[in-house]
Amino acid sequence: MANGDSVLNDPQIKRFLDASTLERFEMAFDEGSADKLRAYMGDEAFTEFRQLAAETLAARRKGDLSPDIPPNMIFVPGVMGSLLLSRKMGGIWWIDMRTRDYIKELKLAPDGKSDARKEYDIAPCTVDITYAPFFSAVNRTPDFNHEIFAYDWRKPLSASAAALRDLIEKTYAANANQPVHLVAHSMGGLMVRAALPPHGDDLWKKIGRIVFIGTPHYGSPSIAGYLKNHLWGFELMALLGLYLDRETFRSLWGVLSLLPAPRGIYPGTRASEEQWSGAQPEDTYVHPCANFDMYKVDPWKLELTPQQADHLQNVLDGAAEFHRSLYEAHTNLSQDERNRMAVIAGVGYETLFRLAYKERLWGAWTSMEKVTGRVAGDPHREGDGRVPLASASLENVGTLRYVKGVHGELPMLPPVYEDVFRWLRGEEMLLPTSAKGALKGHLSGTPVENPAPNLTRITTGNPTTGDPGFLNLNPPDPQALQQLDALLSNDDLPAFNKIRLL
Prior knowledge:
The chain is an alpha/beta fold. Helices cover 36% and strands 11% of the residues. It is built from 19 helices and eleven strands. The protein has helices at 4-8, 11-18, 21-27, 31-41, 43-61, 132-139, 161-174, 187-203, 221-228, 235-241, 246-250, 253-256, 306-332, 335-339, 389-392, 414-425, 435-440, 453-456, 478-489, and strands spanning 73-76, 82-86, 92-94, 122-127, 146-148, 180-185, 207-213, 341-347, 354-357, 368-371, 399-404. It has a six-stranded parallel sheet, with helices on both faces. It has a three-stranded antiparallel sheet with strand order 3-2-4, with no helix packed on it. It has a two-stranded antiparallel ribbon with strand order 9-10. Helix 4 (31-41) packs across helix 5. The longest helix has 27 residues, at 306-332. The two termini are 27 Å apart. Residues 1-8 and 442-447 have low confidence and may be disordered.
């Protein structure tokens, strides 16, 4: 590493990452911290963060906000939104440009329950800075205060269910035994749903309302794309692939549980509903997201050794069972419990909807058709850049709302977080009740804009169309990767800290 352990263990950065939301905002104006935070975030992102901090702290100084309101909301971030550290290696943070040479050590043991190298003892510790606009909004409301649930997104989500239960119970007690609301983004929604079946008898008495924002309830074809062609997507993602090797990626049970749900579970493949009709005559396997069985190793054609194939098959079996268990658990909820759930789905952006081998089951990625085109009114061909609408929807819940927005930014959009607060208060939401309505514009007239795009946005979008949700499906440019890696080697690529698989 360019600057060695002195950068890796910088006390100001460690203090910042350990801090509460308000403490982080206060550090933006601390003379001893500001320059280091600027280097950590990048100049434009830090400027946006500092503006959020100024607005938040000013609102709290006005006196209309009670400083003593107990936490009554728990926020659960998406995949890679929880930062990880090594408890035995001096507090190493993951994922971070300064710790890139350690990223391969994220590898899990074959059963997914522990680190492949136990001496690292990796654990979740906090939530990253990209959610700052949402937390700023929470801290500017008079009736909400929040806790954050960091979890190990590498492992099966069942491994973190008890910890989420404990935080809900602790927050409930601190809130004078009043209900606690759950707000979840992306994979965080699956984390919430994974905690309910084993602990629901106790938890439903302590939970108020739940909001799922951009949750891939039935998975994302983007993860399938990453498994087939290692972390192709955009240049920064491909750069991550230089440090997060293929075998490590295949060991991440939690990440691969985001594959599109198996046939019979995924919307449009169930016997009880109208079947998806988009298959081509030559398809031998009919699924909106692939024309091959994603839960069998051989069709992936990954050129694995027998041992590697066995390990991956175990992970795929676990992912399939995860989807089945969530689907069964949701159907077994009472309607009163489902009525306490709200879903906010993003629409309006190019999304990887389907992978399809063109010639039987031969060849590599170049012999695959990659379906990204949007089709008006088709939930299998509409999305937020990472998650198809069919997957982001959840049946028989209290309300399903839509917004034109990119997946990673959804919680940071003012119309979204304002509607989250309305739902939690028991008020009528204002976001449209149809995808068509969302694509026409926000009904309340509030612009759908991210107040901190440099802080939260990961991709640069499609250079030809300007679509910020675009996921590039072509091989990465070696020269561009080399240039980015040179910046990374000089600890001069803070955008690397924001990379997210979804």
